[in-house]
Specification:
127 residues, mainly beta, 7-stranded mixed β-sheet, 4-stranded antiparallel β-sheet, 1 helix
Length: 127
């Protein structure tokens, strides 16, 4: 099991920006890395994903505002979040899938398809 560690959460005003980071101990040859978010009482939502070919997938709710990237030199996954709104308030989780289902995981962005998870980092958008 891969241990993922998120950082970068915090409180920001509407319209502000945050960059989340997820330290990944190692990457397999083929994989999918993703960000999810969860608000109590709501279903977990896939936010963005990037695969080993650097193809990306975004939820419609964040397209044009969020950017997912992977820095291989530092084994770190990032989520740059711009123009944040109150609806972006949630606990954000980093997830990884390095098994045979990695391609599907990155296309569908369903939490059940990911084997490894971080502990989460809270993002609060409030005036």
């Amino acid at each position: 099991q891969v241990q993922l560690v998120e950082s970068g959460g915090g409180t920001v005003k509407p319209g502000g920006s945050l960059r989340l980071a997820c330290k990944v101990p190692g990457l397999s040859y083929s994989y999918c890395m993703a960000w999810f978010r969860h608000v109590p009482g709501k279903e977990r939502e896939g936010v963005a994903a990037i695969d080993s070919h650097r193809a990306t997938t975004y939820a419609d709710s964040v397209k044009g505002r969020f950017t997912i990237s992977l820095e291989y030199a530092f084994n770190t996954l990032y989520l740059q979040m711009n123009n944040l709104t109150a609806e972006d308030t949630a606990m954000y989780y980093c997830a990884a899938e390095g098994g045979q289902g990695w391609y599907r995981a990155c296309r569908i962005l369903r939490g059940a398809d990911f084997a490894d998870w971080g502990q989460g980092t809270q993002v609060t958008v409030s005036a």
